[in-house]
Amino acid sequence: MRSLKYILTVGAGLFLVACNDSFMERYPQTSISEDNFFNTPQDLETYTNGLYEILQYSTDDVYSDNISTYSGSNEWDNMLRGNIDEKNVGGWANDGRPDYVGGSHNDWGTLRKCNVLLANAHKAQGDETEINHNIGIGRFFRAWFYFSQIKKYGMAPWYSKPLQTSDTELLEKKQDSRELVVDSIMADLQYSVDNIKAIDSRTRINKWAALALMARVALHEGTYRKYHTELNLQGTANTFLEKAVWATNEIMTNGGFEITGNGAEGYRNLFISSDLSGNKEMILFADYDRTIGHGNNTSSVLDWQWHLSRSLADSYLKMDGTPISQDLSYEKRTFTEMFTDRDPRMAETIMPAGFIGAGDAQAKKVNPTYGGLAQVKFYPRTLDINGGYGKNYNDLPIFRYAEVLLINAEAKAELGTISANDINNTINLLRNRVGVAPLDMNNIKEDPVIAAMYPNVSGPNAKVILEIRRERRVEMACEGLRTDDIKRWCVGEIMEKPSEGMYIPGFGPLDITGDGEPDIAIFKTPADNNLTGENKDKLTVYTLFDENGKEQGIYLSEGDKGYIRFVKDKNIPISFIAPKYYYYPIPFAEIQLNPNLDQPSGW
Question: For 314-336, how does the pLDDT look when each residue is reduced to its tens digit (9 = 90+)?
């Protein structure tokens, strides 16, 4: 089959990719091969340098319920609207995800790179600790690859060696079971945890990063098996939840990490700093540096192709720890009012009124065509690290301590073992940083909104689980975890609800920068535009219909007022089909090449 032939052919340039200068000095390019490499721990380290491109990290939550709308193309969104099936889906042979800042490195060639190392590492002579450390890194990346496959397809063929053209039976085999693949992932990660050194570097794979990935995988699998009853694996869910607790306890007890900073600024600096090397919350981060011209594109999170959703905005608590749903006045708060008395993380994630961008002299105007709730998390605030497209130099977290605390709390809550002390050592450390009232697990305020969001949560710990999910959503917003959370909690129906943006009190001029003067105007049609004088030229004008009566992309939930909604959701609504849409189909062409492959459940 073509995709597995790809596994065989990508090795041609493999060693050139993995080399560094010192290696190139020892061997001519033409002589690089498995036969004259992998002889020392240094060779293994050189090779593992080429595996770091596998790492993925996100600066957005496209496409999830944290997003109001997205103008780009997104495969999951298209699938939920009935436009993607096995005939036109991408993936499998080249399973990259271009919406990740870290690049598209999830194809089967990734697996071959890992397996080439693991098949040859035994030849190395030298310090056994160093050899095992690098083997652990190889197994870390193999686990990373297969975790992506399981999340996307539910099962996959497990290969523990680099395939050869003679491996016909392996090349054409069907997928192994979810249980086998996940157990193999966990075995890889256990080896990694046991053998990767606890080095000080936070830009290199270290013991704590291996534990963090183990915890992420274990929580995902434990909750997936618990809530996806169609798998009939509920009886094994707790084994994974207990492993998540163990891994996070190791980090919390022995890692020396802590929640850093105070208030809004402390939270903000996790995502816009030019140097995270001294930040004790970082377990692993991606280093960007102007001096070597290594930049990212984080400035594009603000007002480019998406905005954030009302659903996310409503998840942020008031400063006294009560849900905003209990405040009857909030329902009709305008954009300039909605941030008042709210968790400071809200205004560090969603652009507030009066926000001034890097190099700007005036406050930015919101763009109602995307919903009006622009993302500012990860947006570099100063010109020294915001140089425009591809020239942003803020370091980006891959694993941070806050996620570890959230995993620990969620796993214990799902197991039914969580205590008030556990809450204080996890959730309340995050709330304390920003000054939000702590969570008292014995006095949790009712929030019908969040209860309706997760109807399959029940039992004596239900309220605690819901509040932990809230905390995870707001703390980790725009870090690429939300879609996976929706899937593992088996609440895909969330995506059916029409997305909303900011509240519009009525047609006409609106102040959205907070200076008391109107900045934009919204009218039903161009003919309704009654602006005169200075306002006619000063204000940015939007209409719901053009001069020919064609809808312009947005409408208001109550007709002449209300929350911004999107014509796309009205004309092509999402209908979530479970369990089908929790997985991607394997392209039809791949099934034709290898009829032994099974489509995921529902396809």
Answer: 999 999 999 999 998 888 899 99
**Alpha carbon distance 602, 581 (integer Å):** 8
DSSP secondary structure, 396-457, as one string: EEEEEHHHHHHHHHHHHHHHT---HHHHHHTHHHHHHHHTPPPP-TTSPPP-HHHHHH-TT-
DSSP 45: H
Pairing relation of β-strands 520-523 and 540-543?
parallel
pLDDT (tens digit per residue) in 406-435: 999 999 999 999 999 999 999 999 999 999
Residue 530's DSSP bridge partners are: none
Is-above-0.90 flag for pTM? yes
CATH: 1.25.40.390, 1.10.10.10, 3.40.50.300, 3.40.640.10. Which one for 1-499+569-603?
Answer: 1.25.40.390
Map out the domains of the chain as residue ranges: 1-499+569-603, 506-560
What's the token pair of residue 7? 């596994």
**Residues 387, 380: Cα–Cα separation, whole Å:** 9
> Rounded distance, CA 394 to CA 309, Å?
25
- Residue 445: its pLDDT value, please? 87
As a whole number of angstroms, the distance between CA 297 and CA 61 comes to 15
Helix spans in 282-441 (H): 310-315, 344-347, 401-415, 420-425, 427-434
- Residue partners of 10: CB distance under 8 A and separation at least 6: 108, 109, 112, 113
